[in-house]
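## Example pair
The file below holds two records. Each record gives the amino-acid sequence first, followed by its structure token line.
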Amino acid sequence: MRLVFAGTPAAAIPTLQALALSHEIVAVVTRPDAPLGRKRVLTPSPVAQAAGEMGLPVIKASRLDDDATSRIAALRPELGVIVAYGGLVREPLLSTPVHGWINLHFSLLPQWRGAAPVQRALIAGDAELGASVFQLVPALDAGDVFAARTVTVPPDANADVALDVLAHDGAGLTAEVVAGIAAGTAIARPQEGQVTTAPKLVLEDGKLDWTKAVGEVFSRLRGVTPEPGAHTHVGGIRVKILAAAPSDSDEVLAPGEIKPLKNSLLIGTGTTALEVHRVHPAGKGPMNATDWWRGMRENENLRAGA
């Protein structure tokens, strides 16, 4: 089958690679080069780099406008496949391929429609994560679903780790759906259940509320790591928490109270403590939590959140 593929981040690469094994990829559509790092060097997207290594033609477009539509239409694709491209597919492009477009979405639709499904699911403490392949329609993530399945991720996995697991499992799921569409056997069914939304995360989403139960604090930390990052304030300084886990100790500290251990810090929550291993204070580099605390504890009354 002649496919046009649209995607931008690394999470889209496994699906591109899986589809290229059995189908003709007539074009890979991705976002333009973006400035990265301290020197703001223009860098191709992960998908653009992967497509180049695979010898596939690349169309770089910040949005799928008339020009992009014309270029794609000239290639006569039979199906469009999109995975985290970062832009909307509208008419007439939506109907340009014979079979329209399908989307791999990293949630069990209709749960977590939107830009940050994995992060929002982790923040909410969902027991199950999953992936869905659905027919793209004008409404956000609302099309009929061809296939969906739950995916097991480690209970301490942050958003990056969980997304990587889902990306690889979802690649196989998408390949199965594409094979079914090519064979004329694929069936899409309307979404059923309660709709929840997953808007893009902002900096404020990473703020930890130490009055919440330790499970809720840890769920938020998982969901916002690595971006925008879990953070708190100590002595007026913003501190990112890079690595932590619920403490095995039954010791109860007041919310935000900090107690140093030999190789970590305990920070009190609304229940038991969170054990913090690595931090990144503003204006400094990442470091062990105990090393950072030694330089802070001249004031023994410092608390997280203050």
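Second record, same layout:
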Amino acid sequence: MYFKKISIYSLITIAVLSSCSGKKEEEKTVYENTKSSKNDQNTVHLSEQQLNTAGLTTTTLQNKNMLKLVRLNGKVNIAPSHISLLSSIMGGHIKSINVINGSHFSKGQVLAVVEDPQFIQLQQDYLVTKAQLESARLNLNRQKDLNTSKASSDKTLQTAQADYSTLNATLKGLEEKLRIIGINAKGLNSRSIRSRINIYAPFSGFVSKISVSNGQYINPSDTLFELINPSGLLLELKVFENDVNDLKIGQEIAVYTNQNPDKKSNAKIISIVPNIENGGSSIAIAKLSAPNSEYIMGMYMNAEVSINSRYTLGLPNEAVVSFENKNYVFEDMGKHTYKMIPITTGISDDQFTEITKADFLKNKKIVDKGAYSLLMMLKNKAE
């Protein structure tokens, strides 16, 4: 009986030990398979047939004299100094409006006509004062002659001089008032008096807003038009944080629209906002080298600026692949095996991409043609 109990206990102990041993072996196998799987996530092995189909070629790091091309985008804006609010110097009724929103105009062009009786009164006052001044001039000369012969007193001469000076000042003032409302006082006479004045364009540009209507009475403080001087057009361009230090005030840039990417205009950077916004970008302000009537406020624009070239390490563009906003290359490990390696890129041009901190890639064979195909194979295998 005692022997049987011992035997039973022994069997149970052996079974438990066997179970633990098997579990450890199983855990070891799972761990090794998991470790192997993680390594395989960045490695792809090609069969002979796949290799022939892919047509892979390899290259190595190359020293290149590269020119950085920074691409920017933004909108056309206008300098505040080139937005003008046009009003009439004197009040009156709008008789005609000769432009529409968006229309272009030339300097000196009549934009509107204003009518009011006060314009007649101002011209009349000028002509009356002019006649009075002539009479005062004759009287002053006569008093000078009389005073010389002591036929009139000094007081009478002084009064004549004061009258002449007063009327002369009044005439000059009226002449200036007529000038600023567009009436030439020098050619004014009783037959040329008119009740209307013209509102002239102070520069060449285009109308962005009309604030009045025909027949409306306006005061001198009322705005008639908002005018844009296209010589003040500016480009507000977004600059990403990585490129801010490469841009300088005075740099020449080429700008173009989405509709005509081949038709480029020259501009110059005149300001860089010293602030990085939440989106990781700043603003560069550029001014066109010559006015362009095709560019209007609010239009989306693109720009390119070439940065001074530098001697650096790089790879052909085809060797660099991107996945989930990160850049990689594939190293040829031999025996049809290729390993994906994360890299950090710098500047790029039409042919090459700079590789920063690239010492670990020296003397390694990097896949050139076919790198993207390897990326697709690797990601499909992972799925």
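Notes on the second record: The CA atoms of residues 130 and 354 lie 81 Å apart. The two ends are 61 Å apart (CA to CA).
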